[in-house]
Structure formats: C-alpha cells, structure tokens
Amino acid sequence: MFKGTATSTDDRTQRSSSALAGNRLVLLGAVSYFCEWVAIIGAGGISVLFKPGTNPTSVLQAYVGHSDAFAWAAGWFSVVLLGRVLFAVAVRHALARSGHQDPVADLGVLAMTVGVVFEVAAYALVMGAAILADHGAKADVVTAIDASASSVESMLWGPTGLAVVSISWAMLRSGMFSRALSGIGLFAGTLMLLEGLAFSAPRFADVQGALQIGVPLMWLWMIWTGVVTWRRAASS
Questions:
Q1: Element holding 183 (H helix, E strand)
Q2: Are 200 and 142 in contact (CB under 8 A)?
Q3: Rounded distance, CA 229 to CA 224, Å?
Q4: Is 213 helix (H, G, I), strand (E, B) or coil?
Q5: What's the rounded Cα separation, in Å, for the pair 151 and 222?
Q6: 231 burial level (CB within 10 Å; 0-12, 13-18, 19+)
Q7: Within its chain, how far is the Cα of 92 from the centroid?
Q8: 236 class by beta-carbon count within 10 Å (0-12 exposed, 13-18 middle, 19+ buried)
Q9: Which pLDDT tens digit goes with each residue over 97-141?
Q10: Is 100 helix (H, G, I), strand (E, B) or coil?
Q11: CB 163 within 8 A of CB 111
C-alpha cells in the first residue's frame, strides 16, 4: 500500500515537472542583473555609502574626482538592475503558461520592482554627491547626501526579500520546481526580509552583515532557476 502510494506521488511529481513551460528570459534577466559588477569594478569599487559617524573629510575624499565614474555607474545600474524585474516577470510567465497563475507571483514582481527602484535611486544620490564634491561642495553637504543614499539603499532589502519569498513560494506551490531550489529561495528571501523588517537601524550593523548571506543565496537561486527554465525551453 505504502509503496503504491509513493509511486503514485512520484508519478504526479514527474508529470507536474514535465509540464513546466520553459522561458529563456529567466536566465537572461539574472545575467543582466549580474552585469552590475561591470560598473562596480569599472568605477573602482564604488567604495562609498559610509557608516554614520564617519569623518566628513574622509567621505569627501572618497567622492572627489569620481563624478564621471559614479555617474556612468549610476546610469549603468539604472538599466542592468532591471534584470531582476525581468527575472521575476519571466518566472511568473513560466508559471502562468504552465497552468499555475498565482497572485503571490504577481506580488513578487511588484516587490522586486520596488527594490530595484530603491537601489537605482540610491546610486543616483551617489552620483549627485560626487558631482557636488567635484564642484566645491563642503564635506558636511557631501556627507549628508551619502547618508541619504545609504538610507535609500537600505530600503531595498525588505521589498527584495519579499519578492524572493513570494516567487519561491509560488514555485514551491506549483510543484514544478525542486523543493531544494524553492527552499534556497525561501531561506534567502526570509533573511533579506528580516533585515528590512527589523534591522535597518545603524546600531544593527553587525546583524545586517550576518543577514547579508541571503544575497549570495539569492544569486544561487536565480541562476539555478534560470538554468531549469532555459533547459525546459530548449527541450520543448
């Protein structure tokens, strides 16, 4: 009896997995997002967004002479970071085409978009601080804008974490992705969501650093999901 039940469950899982509609845009979205490293490296690491209390002179020195590089990086980010949105939209589309239209996935797309907007806005402020620094702005002015940029950037974690949790949950409920893959996404998203919900304050800097392990886990989840949907597209 138990053996027969297990076999039936396996058969249902295989049928569900085989019904997954492929979508190459999932992986393309992830790759586009990872292209942010082109600007990070090309702009010299963008070593700004300082901790509160940093000497304003040190903040000013980090910005002086970098207005062109930071402006280019901000523009680059405004395009390639949309890869995260493309990723979310493509996963939702793959689920819908497979017969699993899920409003939770719709929430994931919206939340991912909000996270990207916060991140793009943060680096637009970095660009502004660099331009002011190169045109004679005082250290306290540049420091204030840097603090604003840092604050805006910290707002990306909650929405992005919610997006990853939502999409992973929709993937799990569909039964078309492995539990391991969905579980990685749920864990990664929960860590980022927790940071956004409770640990944005500067005094929780150590906790924030620990919760950042969710970011490389999100990368793994995105790549793995992209490969799965790409291979499904290739075989269909």
A1: helix 179-198
A2: no
A3: 9
A4: coil
A5: 26
A6: middle
A7: 16
A8: exposed
A9: 999 999 999 999 999 999 999 999 999 999 999 999 999 999 999
A10: coil
A11: yes
Say yes or no to pLDDT of 11 above 90: no
Within 10 angstroms of residue 156's Cβ, the number of other Cβ atoms is 22
Classify each residue of 134-147 as buried b or exposed e, where b means 16 or more C-beta atoms within 10 Å of its C-beta: eeebebeebbebbb
Task: Please give the DSSP secondary-structure letter assigned to residue 204.
Answer: G
Query: Could you give the CA distance from residue 70 to residue 66 in angstroms, rounded to a whole number?
Result: 6
DSSP 66: -
Sign of the CA dihedral 25, 29, 31, 32? positive
Closest CA to 167 of 192, 149, 142: 192
The CA distance from 33 to 213, in Å, is: 18
- Whether 196 contacts 62, CB under 8 Å: no
Confidence of residue 236 (pLDDT cuts 50, 70, 90): low
Q: How far apart are CA 101 and CA 185, in angstroms?
A: 19
Tokens standing for residue 210: 């620990």
- What totals of helices (H) and strands (E) does the chain contain, helices first? 12, 0
Q: Nearest-CA neighbor of 131 among 76, 69, 59, 77? A: 69
Supply φ then ψ for residue 130, to 5 degrees. -65, -40
Amino acid in the structure at residue 1: M
d(CA 29, CA 134): 35
For residue 103, the one-letter residue type is: P
> How is residue 91 written in tokens?
């996963």
Give residue for tokens 């901000």: 74
